[in-house]
Amino acid sequence: MAHQLKTKHLFYKSVNSLLIIGQEIDANKHSHHALQVSISLDIPFLFECATISDHFEGVIIGPDIDHSLSGIHGRQALLLLDPEHHQSKEIIEQLLDNNGIYVLQGELLDKLRFYINAHLPEQGSSELLIDDVLNILVSQSQPLPEMDARIQAVINYIAQQPQKIANIQELAQHSNLSESRLSHLFKQHVGIPIRRYLLWQRLLDASVFAATGNSLTEAAHQAGFTDSSHFTRTFKSMFGVHPSSFIKNIEFVKTHQE
User: Fold this and answer.
1) What angle do CA 207, 8, 85 make, to 5 degrees?
2) What distances in angstroms separate CA 188 from CA 60, 146, 156, 158, 193, one per listed residue?
3) CB burial class (10 A; 0-12, 13-18, 19+) of residue 103?
4) pTM score, whole prediction
5) Does the CA dihedral 195-128-21-206 come out positive or negative?
């Protein structure tokens, strides 16, 4: 088991990300496909990868980078992002070095830590908290395009499905777009392909179901996975750990939409 969470932690979710505020996070060497931002909220943590080993107050870790993190004497904010999302790509391009690592320090680190500490725990502000953290991390070279009303309608439609298993043909009919046009516009406005977006929603839903008292098997079925093994494999591929090692000690922070 890579991560061990020894006390209750706050779990926030947004469209393409998870934010976990925890104490005593101890992560043995592992890798995952998500872009990771780790921020100490009080004392430094030990971070190790192939190129560095030291105590830090904040690091950004690129996708698929082997690393370990030990913060057993303090609190950390752990943000996991889909690397294909617009702002993730900005972070990777602007901040990460050739080794896929960026050490947070100075004014940027201070702003992130101050903002997170000042807004915890706030019910009903999950997406806003994550969005504001991302906006602090990266200054957009150009603003994101205004959301196309048809794409927003598709997102709203997906959100209403108890299991996020809608197919592209169904979504194309709902949006009055061809499948190819829908795929192009969705990637342009949301930042990731539709199938990946649906996978993220199922992962997030299953995590929430498990965090609110369901077994992994029950959570997997509720979120549209074929079984708990399918959910576990997908979760470990994206985040590098078994879902139970995170979820069993998580307190889910509801959003204004739930």
Assistant:
1) 40
2) 25, 10, 17, 18, 9
3) middle
4) 0.78
5) negative
- Cα separation, 237 vs 214, in Å, equals 22
Mean pLDDT of all residues in 132-155? 79
Whether the CB-CB separation of 63 and 34 falls below 8 Å is answered with: yes
Asked which of 20-24, 80-84, 157-161 is least confident by mean pLDDT, the reply is 20-24
Q: What is the mean pLDDT of residues 243-254?
A: 65
DSSP structure string for 97-130 = -TTSEEE--HHHHHHHHHHHHHTTT-TT-HHHHH
Query: For residue 33, what are the contacts with CB-CB under 8 A and spacing of at least 6?
Result: 63, 64, 83, 237, 238
Going from the N-terminus, what domains does the chain have, and what CATH number goes with each?
Answer: 3-137 (2.60.120.10), 149-248 (1.10.10.60)
Q: CB 49: neighbour CB atoms within 10 A?
A: 19
Chain-centre distance of CA 176, in angstroms?
Answer: 31
Backbone angles phi, psi at 42, to 5 degrees: -150, -75
47 vs 54: CA distance, rounded Å: 6
